[in-house]
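In this section we walk through a basic example: taking a raw amino acid sequence and producing a predicted 3D structure, encoded as discrete structure tokens. The instruction is simple. Fold the sequence below.
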Amino acid sequence: MRCWGGLGPQRAIVKGRFMARYTGPVCKLCRREGMKLFLKGERCLSKKCAIERSTSRPGQHGAVRARKASGYALQLREKQKVRRTYGILERQFRRHFQTAARQPGKTSDNLLQLLEMRLDNLVYRLGFADSRSQARQLVSHGHFEVNGRKTDIPSFIARPGDVIAVREHSKHLEYFKTRALMLAQKGVPNWLRLDTAALSGRVMALPTRTELELPFDEALVVELYQR
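The resulting token sequence is shown next.
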């Protein structure tokens, strides 16, 4: 992977095409939002977590007392929390919102279900990775298949009934051998089923809001895009 000058840290050229991603320190994102977004897996649960060590915002003015936020600022911050939690940049996030808005039902619920049904998020929820960024990397490297077909697109949207499994040739890697021993100690959400022996999982249903413990209010995101 090679970053080209002038494109900034969020754009790189891979196999002749542009790929957007955030390459900075993710602990700064949690500090900016003033809460844990659990972007670094187990580290977020330890005393090494940036929020545990400092509650101020990053930058030289981080310790300055912030003014009361406007309604727009609150909505913007909630959108940033959602984007950063799932590791999605603005253009792709807007596409997810537009898709959710076209579907019947509450747009906020539809948006959450779309984000939760992304392949990288499902790999994380099933316990094959400690964070969504790690899950995204594993998917991009071609270690997973959906319904028996190799799928290396992190933004792939799964459906109820789909089976996500580690590919046969990847099961022999040391990472997945170690992960197999850890899976038995981890639980998965009620809307997923995990087969630790086969290193696979099945989507049983779409998740409901009450089943998701998320650090943001997605209704404010809908209000922001509908302004």
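Looking at the output, two observations stand out. Confidence is low (pLDDT under 50) at residues 1-19. The chain has two domains: 28-115, 118-203. In the next section we compare this with other chains.
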